[in-house]
C-alpha cells in the first residue's frame, strides 16, 4: 500500500523531539492502513462493527479520498487479523513518541479482545503495560503550525497550504528549509516573513513567492476550558492575527489600533498523513479599535462577538 510507504518515510526522519510531528504523521499512516484492513475484516465477520470507531482517533478516517477507497478494496488477501493488529500497534508506538498518549487506550480497545479470544496473555500483558505507561505520561510539547501561501508561475497560481513543525522550530529555520526545498525548481524564490496582506498583482511577476506566518489553533470558546490534548488534536481551523492602522502603520495608539483576524479551514484535520494540507475556506474579521480594547478587557474568543466578512 502506498500509505505504508509514506509511513516508512515519516519513520525514517531523524528530527525526533519529545513530541514529534513526524511521529504523528507516521502514526496516522498506520491508522489509515488499519482502517483499510478493517473494511475487509468486518465484511468477513472477523471484526465486529463496534470493535473500533476510527473517527474517535481522527475525523479524516474513513477518508473520502478515492485513493484510500480503492486501496481498501484491493488485494484483500493481505488484509489479515495479524496485519490489522500490527498496524494498530505501530500507530500506538508512534502516538506515544508524539506525546499523544490519550489515543493509546482508544486504539487498544480493538486489540485487547483479539488477544483475549486467542488466549495470548503475553500480548495482553504488553498492551496493558503500554496503556499504563501512557496514563503515567502528562508532559508534552505541541507542534507549531505555519501558514504558507505560495504564488508564481512555478506554482501555477496561488496555493494555500499549512505546514506543521516541532514546537521549538523558529521562523528562520522554516525559511531556510523552504529555500532548500525549492532552490532547484523556483526561478527566483523570495520568502516574505511579514503578516500584512499582500497584493500579489503588484509583485514582480518574474519571481516566485512564499509568505510564511505562524498561526494558532482556533476553536469555540467553550472548548478553551478542556484539556490541552483536546485543544491540540483534530484541529481543522486556525487563525492569524495581523495588527494594522487605517493610516497604513502596523502599530499605533489605542484609538488607532485595529486587528485583522484571518480564519482558515483546512481540508483535513491535524494531524494527518501529510505535512501540508490545503486550505478550503478563508474568513476575514476586522476588529475596530474599540473592539480590540473590548477583547483585551473581556478576554476569551473576541471573534465570536463581531460581524465578519467571508471570502471563499
From TrEMBL:
Residue span, DOCKER domain: 1-312
Signal peptide location: none
Keyword Metal-binding: no
UniProt keyword annotations, A-Z: Guanine-nucleotide releasing factor
A GO MF term: guanyl-nucleotide exchange factor activity
Family membership: Belongs to the DOCK family.
The name this protein goes by in its record: Dedicator of cytokinesis protein 10
Organism: Thelohanellus kitauei
Amino acid at each position: 500500500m502506498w500509505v505504508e510507504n509514506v509511513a516508512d518515510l515519516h519513520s525514517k526522519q531523524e528530527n525526533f523531539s519529545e513530541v514529534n510531528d513526524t511521529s504523528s504523521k507516521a502514526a496516522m499512516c498506520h491508522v489509515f492502513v488499519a482502517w483499510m484492513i478493517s473494511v475487509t475484516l468486518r465484511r468477513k465477520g472477523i471484526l465486529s462493527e463496534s470493535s473500533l470507531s476510527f473517527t474517535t482517533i481522527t475525523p479524516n478516517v474513513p477518508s473520502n479520498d478515492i485513493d484510500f477507497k480503492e486501496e481498501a478494496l484491493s488485494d484483500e488477501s493481505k488484509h489479515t487479523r495479524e496485519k490489522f493488529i500490527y498496524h494498530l500497534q505501530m500507530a500506538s508506538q508512534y502516538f506515544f513518541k508524539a506525546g499523544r498518549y490519550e489515543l493509546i487506550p482508544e486504539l487498544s480497545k480493538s486489540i485487547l479482545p483479539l488477544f483475549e479470544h486467542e488466549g495470548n496473555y503475553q500480548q495482553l500483558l504488553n498492551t496493558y503495560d503500554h496503556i499504563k505507561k501512557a496514563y503515567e505520561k502528562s508532559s508534552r510539547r505541541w507542534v507549531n503550525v505555519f501558514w504558507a501561501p505560495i504564488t508564481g508561475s512555478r506554482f501555477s497560481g496561488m496555493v494555500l497550504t499549512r505546514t506543521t513543525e516541532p514546537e521549538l522550530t523558529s521562523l528562520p529555520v522554516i525559511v531556510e528549509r523552504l529555500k532548500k526545498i525549492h532552490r532547484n525548481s523556483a526561478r527566483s524564490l523570495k520568502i516574505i516573513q511579514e503578516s500584512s496582506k499582500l497584493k500579489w498583482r503588484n509583485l514582480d511577476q518574474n519571481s516566485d513567492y512564499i509568505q510564511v506566518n505562524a498561526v494558532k489553533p482556533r476553536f469555540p470558546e467553550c472548548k478553551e476550558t478542556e484539556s490541552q490534548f483536546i485543544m491540540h488534536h483534530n484541529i481543522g481551523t486556525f487563525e492569524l492575527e495581523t495588527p494594522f492602522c487605517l493610516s497604513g502603520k502596523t502599530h499605533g495608539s489605542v484609538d488607532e489600533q485595529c486587528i485583522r483576524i484571518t480564519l482558515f479551514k483546512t481540508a483535513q484535520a491535524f494531524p494527518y498523513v501529510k505535512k501540508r494540507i490545503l486550505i478550503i475556506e478563508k474568513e476575514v474579521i476586522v476588529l475596530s479599535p474599540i473592539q480590540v480594547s473590548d477583547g483585551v478587557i473581556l478576554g476569551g474568543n473576541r471573534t465570536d462577538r463581531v460581524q465578519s466578512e467571508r471570502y471563499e
